[in-house]
Amino acid sequence: MDFGNLIDLDIRWSLIVTNLVSLGVAYVLALPVAYDRELSARGAGLRTFPLVAVAACGYTLVGMSVLSSTEAESRVLQGLITGIGFIGGGAILKSNGTVHGTATAASIWNTGLIGIAVAFHRYEVAILMSVINFLTLRFVRQFKVPEDDKDKEE
């Protein structure tokens, strides 16, 4: 029995390097958001956000390489956006009349977009989304009215 044809791996090393760069960029651009969420002691942090970005980038890269129409690629993107939204929904908690985790959920969704943008070589979009997300998490919270103050106003 000839086993030579059973293990016929058609590996294109140039594609491995190209894809590794894309996945690496998605990973790095997710780190500022991940770092902020980790510092804020949120459930999602340094592991979750880079993995979401890398997975979104990876699914998009595979979709672009094996699908032959933009309609098929758009279905992959629709599935990604829905799936990432589902993951983000798990970060939202409601208790005692308050809702927590919406910024983390939105950040998970945004991190997915970072991965998708990198896969399409739209680095400017990915960089802007990373910076905007990080700055919003870091600096806009100081303008947020604390829950205790909201109760006093009513």
Strand proportion: under 5%
Low-confidence residue ranges: none
Number of helices: 6
Helix content: over 70%
Structural class of the secondary elements? mainly alpha
Number of self-contained structural domains: 1
Taking strands numbered 1, 2, ... along the chain, how are they ordered across the largest sheet? 1-2
Oligomeric state of the chains present here: single chain
CA-atom Rg in angstroms? 19 Å
Instruction: Give the SSE order as H and E letters.
Output: HHHEEHHH
Describe the overall structure.
There is one protein chain. Helix content is 70%, strand content 4%. It is built from 6 helices and 2 strands. The chain has helices at residues 13-39, 48-66, 70-89, 102-119, 123-139, 147-153; strands at residues 93-95, 98-100.
Topology diagram in text:
Layout lengths: L12 H27 L8 H19 L3 H20 L3 E3 L2 E3 L1 H18 L3 H17 L7 H7 L1
Antiparallel strand pairs: 1-2
Could you provide a short overview of the structure?
The chain has 154 residues and is mainly α. The chain has helices at residues 13-39, 48-66, 70-89, 102-119, 123-139, 147-153, and strands at 93-95, 98-100.
What are the key terms here?
4% strand, 154 residues, two-stranded antiparallel sheet, mainly alpha, single chain
